[in-house]
Amino acid sequence: MSNGSRKISESRVRSSECLATVVVAPIRNPKSGLRNRKRLGFSLLEAIAATALVGVGVASAMGGLAAMAKTDRLLLERETMQRLAALKYDEIIATGQIETADLSGDFAEQNLDKYEWEATVEPSGEENLEILTITVNQTGVTEGPQATFDGLIFKPPIEGGAQ
Known about the structure:
- This protein is α+β, with helices and mostly antiparallel strands.
- The chain has helices spanning 33-36, 44-95; strands spanning 2-3, 6-7, 9-14, 19-24, 104-107, 112-123, 129-138, 146-154.
- It contains 2 helices and 8 strands, in the order ββββααββββ.
């Protein structure tokens, strides 16, 4: 007969005075019971694999954060240079010194010795208009980020006749 998952066999033993039923259970291996119990905790291999996966995830997240910080720093640098180029353009236009002013320099008056600027004036192809280009880059750096600002300059025509 079977009772659940264990097999129990019954045998009847006849004695001189009574009839008895003897229940004989099969001998169990003590280790086989481990398979039937629920597992508690993790094996060493599972713990090592989980630790390795977490380590890889943390390392890639830190790499991503470092790249993001570098990009943020470069964008901030470029924005600063763009603002300085616009400021220098406005200064040259406002003072009207395009013909007499130096076409290069630094930003020492703003306490920004880290940057230098250069201006170029080119014809636009239209009468009385020229293109003023201001380029700002880091001092001493040729391959770094740079910012340019272009604008038009109106030069009034010179009257030919004097009365």
